[in-house]
Amino acid sequence: MSSLPVKGFLGTGATFEADVNLVVQLVMGMALVAGVVLAKQQHYRAHGICQTTVMLLNLLMIGIVMWPSFRRQVNPMFPRVLHRSYYAAPMVHAALGITAELLGLYVVLVAGTNVLPEWLRFRNWKRWMRTEFVLWLIVVISGMGTYYAWYIAPFR
Q1: Tell me, what's the pLDDT at 155?
Q2: Contact in structure between 111 and 48 (CB atoms under 8 Å)
Q3: Angstrom distance (rounded) from CA 67 to CA 105
Q4: pLDDT computed for residue 148 by the predictor
Q5: Which pairs count as long-range contacts for 85-93, CB under 8 Å and 24+ apart, including other chains?
Q6: What pLDDT does residue 115 have?
Q7: Which listed site, 9, 49, 142, 148, has its alpha carbon 20 to 30 Å from 88?
Q8: Phi, psi dihedral angles at 7 (to 5 degrees)
Q9: Mean pLDDT in each 10-residue stretch from start to end of the chain (156 residues)?
Q10: Which helix (H) or strand (E) covers residue 4, if one does?
Q11: Residue 138: which residues within 8 A CB-CB, separation 6 or more?
Q12: What pLDDT is stored for residue 4 in this prediction?
């Protein structure tokens, strides 16, 4: 990643990786909405492929961009400065994001595989998937809040 440009392309104080991540996250959010539409149209196989692809791409983005940024910018100061939005925003985003990613991976495992025993499998698909979708939307919004706190607010 060291050969990538340092400065972002969105005209903020963000790095190139942060700008790419923001754009990818917004596109993934739109893909999740498209996946919901596919499910409503009873295209369940396409729905599953769409949602699973987003989950796996998000896992990649967490590993490549978000986790290293979090470790570099938040971990050294934790918990001394949680009263400042620069640190509180990513902490809230990380907590919600970890919850959404784990729940999403659980849903993918239950819906797309037979790895989990029957007693660990849910029955009410709609409730779990709707919960995951709403949680994901909240995570996308909190991610935009983190982007604002890190790359826009400090330069105003």
Answers
A1: 76
A2: yes
A3: 18
A4: 94
A5: 85/149, 85/153, 86/149, 86/150, 86/153, 86/154, 89/142, 89/145, 89/146, 89/148, 89/149, 89/150, 90/146, 90/149, 90/150, 92/142, 92/145, 93/139, 93/142, 93/143, 93/145, 93/146
A6: 93
A7: 9
A8: -80, 140
A9: 71 93 96 96 95 95 93 73 77 94 93 90 87 95 94 83
A10: none
A11: 96, 100
A12: 55
pTM to 2 decimal places: 0.86
Cβ pair 74, 83 in contact under 8 A? no
- 3 state SS for 79-134: CCCCCCHHHHHHHHHHHHHHHHHHHHHHHHHHHHCCCCCHHHCCCCHHHHHHHHHH
Q: Which two tokens stand for residue 77?
A: 């100061």
The pLDDT of residue 84: 75
> For residue 130, what are its two tokens?
């709707």
Three-class SS state of 73 = helix
Sole residue written with tokens 């995951």: 132
Local structure of 7: helix, strand or coil: strand
